[in-house]
Automatic annotation (TrEMBL):
Name of this chain's protein: N-acetyltransferase
Keywords: Transferase
GO molecular function terms noted in the UniProt entry: transferase activity
Keyword Transferase: yes
Family annotation (Pfam families): Hexapep
PANTHER family membership: ACETYLTRANSFERASE (PTHR43300), ACYL-[ACYL-CARRIER-PROTEIN]--UDP-N-ACETYLGLUCOSAMINE O-ACYLTRANSFERASE (PTHR43300:SF4)
Sequence similarity: Belongs to the transferase hexapeptide repeat family.
């Protein structure tokens, strides 16, 4: 069984749940009601807020904050300095903690470096959010998204390879089909 590793500079509040095999690196802060699954890796300076959930095998790169209301399913990749939000219209002088919006990142999704995910959105299974993209709406499974605001530029396979017109993964040979505007593995 893999052991949990927590670097001596990390702060893990009493009550936080962290699965076996996970690694929590320098200067992280895990709040008391956060839940982190097994075999996760949190790079330097990662914050995981109360009620935030990370599934199993989630990779969180340096300088990422996972706020209350964010759920990342298994096998999610969060790139360096990417950003989640949890309030649509924040104001310093207005308390909107009762207005936090949920954000769901489905199994196998990748979010590139410096991307921003506006709260209240769902990112579909195995979607790929390009570096610096700003997500303002729900993302379809396997969609390749880029730009500000982000637009769909194509499709990716489960392994993250860009699919051509034949919808066959160039890395694995896995075949996909497009039905009713959604991509599905055969």
């Amino acid at each position: 069984m893999n052991k949990l590793f927590i670097h001596e500079t990390a702060i893990v509040d009493d009550g936080a749940k962290i699965g076996s095999g996970s690694k929590i690196w320098h200067f992280c802060h895990i709040m008391a009601t956060a839940h982190i699954g097994m075999n996760c890796v949190l790079g330097q300076n990662v914050f995981v807020g109360n009620k935030a959930i990370l599934g199993n095998n989630v990779k969180v790169q340096n300088n990422v904050s996972v706020y209350e209301g964010v759920v990342c399913e298994d096998d999610v990749f969060l790139g360096p300095s990417m950003v989640f939000t949890n309030v649509i219209n924040p104001r310093s002088a207005v308390n909107r903690k009762e207005e936090f919006k949920k954000t769901l990142v489905k199994k196998g999704a990748t979010i590139g470096a410096n991307a921003t995910i506006v709260c209240g959105t769902t990112l579909g299974e195995y979607c790929f959010i390009g570096a610096g993209a700003v997500i303002t709406k729900d993302v379809k499974p396997f969609a390749l998204m880029a730009g500000v605001p982000a637009r769909q530029k194509g499709w990716v396979s489960r392994s993250g390879a860009i699919l051509g017109d034949n919808l066959v993964c160039p890395e694995t040979g896995e075949k996909y089909i497009l039905a009713d505007g959604f991509l599905k593995p055969l």
